Structure formats: C-alpha cells, structure tokens
Amino acid sequence: MISTISSADGLRLRQEYLKKARRVVVKVGSAVLTGSTGLNTEVMTNLARQLSALRNDGLEVILVSSGAVAAGRRKLALGDRSISLKEKQAVAAAGQSHLMRVYEDIFGQFDQKIAQVLLTRDDLSHRSRYLNVRNTLFTLLQWGLIPVINENDTVSVEELRFGDNDTLGAMITNLTEADLFLCLTDVAGLYTGNPSQDPSAVRLSTVDRVTTVVEAMAGNVQSALGTGGMQSKIKAARMVSDSGGCSFIGPGKESEVISRLFKGEDVGTFFLPSKAKLKSRKHWISYTLRPKGDLVLDSGACRALIGGGKSLLPSGICQVNGRFGPGDPVRCLNDEGELIGVGLVNYRSSDIDLIKGLKSSLIEQTLGYKDSDEVIHRDNFVIAGEKSVE
Length: 390
Prior knowledge:
Structural class: alpha/beta
Shape: globular
Number of domains: 2
CATH topology of the largest domain: Carbamate kinase
Radius of gyration: 23 Å
Order of helices and strands: HEHEEHEHHEHHEHEEHHEHEHEHEEEHHE
CATH architecture of the largest domain: 3-Layer(aba) Sandwich
Low-confidence stretches: 220-228
Strand order of the largest sheet: 5-6-4-1-7-9-10-8
Number of strands: 15
Distance between the termini: 9 Å
CATH class of the largest domain: Alpha Beta
C-alpha cells in the first residue's frame, strides 16, 4: 500500500511538520547544480537565497552538495570521457575548490557565511569520530554558519564511500537530529511510474510510509550527472523516517521550490516520519555501519533474538563467515541464509569460531580470557524488521 491519507490531509500534515521544523538538511545533486558549461550559477544563486531566507527565519540549515567531480570535469575540459579512480580523485580536488569558491561568493551576496566539511563514510563508522563530526556541525550552526558538506572524493576508496550524497544527506540528517531532509533533484517528485515512459504516471504528493512497494516505484532511473537515482532517494527518505524525521523530494531547478514548500503549496513528494522511531545508536548500527561478516545461527538463537529480546550467546552460533574484530558489525542469518538482524560483536571472528556452540561458562576455558558472556549484547543488535514496519 502506498498511502492511507488523502491529498488534503497530506498537505495539512506536511504543514504541521514544516511549522515545527527547526533544523533542515538540504541535499542538492550534480544534475541540478551543473550544466553543459559547468556550474549553473543561476540555480546556485536561487538556492543560496532560499537557504539564507530560512536562516533569517530562525532555522538552522545544513547543505549537502554534490558537484565537485562534475565541476572538475568542466574546469579541466575533460568532457564525458571515462576516467580512472586516481583521475577522479584528482578531478574532485580541482572541482571542490572551484565549487566552494562559487558558493562562498554567492552566499556572500546574502550576507550568509558558510563552512566546508568533507567526509568519508569511515568518519561516521567510528562512534567517537561520528560524535566529533556531530559536535563540529553543532558548533558551526550555533555560530550562524551554513555547513556545506560533500563526500571527500579525493581520498575516498570504494569501501569508504557513501555511494551517493542522498545517503550522506540522510546520515547527516539523523546525525544532527534534523527535523527535515530536503532532497533537490532533476525530477518533480516520486511518480507511480516512470513519467518519461508511462503517460498515466502521477506524482505522489504525500507518502505516509516508505514500504517495499514505494521503493519499487522508484525504478532504476539515473541522471546523466548524478550517482544516485530515485531508488537511492527513496532509501534515504526511509532512513530519515526510521529516525523520526520528514523528507521531501522535489525539483531543484525551480527557482522558488523551497519557498513554495514552506508556503504550503503542493510541490514535490513529502514523506512523513515513521510512527516507530528507531533509537539513535541502533539507527547508527543499522544504517551507517557496513557489516564485515556473518554469523549463522540455530533456530533457538533466532527465536531468542527476534521474539525474546535476548542477547546472542555462543551456544546459538553454528557458523562464522568473514574476518572481523571486537566492535565490528556483522549480519546474523538463520540456517536458510535469511537476514535476522545486524549487531556489534564482542569477540574477533577467529575466537567466535572456537567458542561457537559452547556455553558461556566455557569461554574463558577455551580462549584463555572472557570479555563478555554474550557474543552480541541485545543493546547492540538491530532486528531486520525493526527498521520500519512493512
């Protein structure tokens, strides 16, 4: 099911959430920011004007901006030819400096100061660094600046990448406990089908719950300049919803799209927050961390984790896959390979392999030490279905 609310009720609800919003994260993609001749300064000026207006109205604003690689391509006259990873990193370095210089000049026209923040996924995967990023952003907001965040493409490698700035934007929204995530793209919103191929496709105004049906509607349409298609934007909306926030997908090239949204006009697609909010730490485990291995569990352990809210003991583990250390995230699977959940382990993989199937009382005898009775404590475990209710 897509939505259980009428269009009128949807507009009323979105207005209620917009009026209560105090912190907003805005993500803008390459397809919006760049054109055939490089950065689209007209679009960037409209964006800066609207974000500065939000700041003047008392809202805290964070901008997650793509465009470094696309700007670098045009700055270096590389066209659309294929480039290697090392070339892409160099192009990003050239483009990022150009991107920030343009932003600095344009926001300056509205007397708004900005600050550059470059991140890799690794910065958010370690809890202490995650909290450091959070504290830095809060300080910048307290000082009245608009942080301009981008992935640090110059140093990012595949295993450290966010994949796209939709995911980065959603993570920043949850990291800062923002009320609203605005995803500005080159389409008018989420449609029931691909509007370029299906003439009967209609835009969805308000979505009350991001289900697999909604995710399937996104299809696999990608922009020529962006790395994330509509699917990544819907997944980002789901991440924000599970943390208790609202999301919006709308046409970033429209000069007044943000102003129209806050005025109550029916523009884009608005996603309401989940009724069952996932706790901050569990959301971090579920969405920010990338599992480094698998634990295959017996039926009793699966029942204890899912139905009993218990911790995972070594006696319920049948098989260990992958190499990982204490504190690393792993997937927990049943004997049919189905995902049960994700958790942080207390022991390295080689030690878990030695104690699997044993009682906790035998851990010290087997390993020569015992840090915990549990392989995964229940507070560090997220059930697969706990992310959101289908």
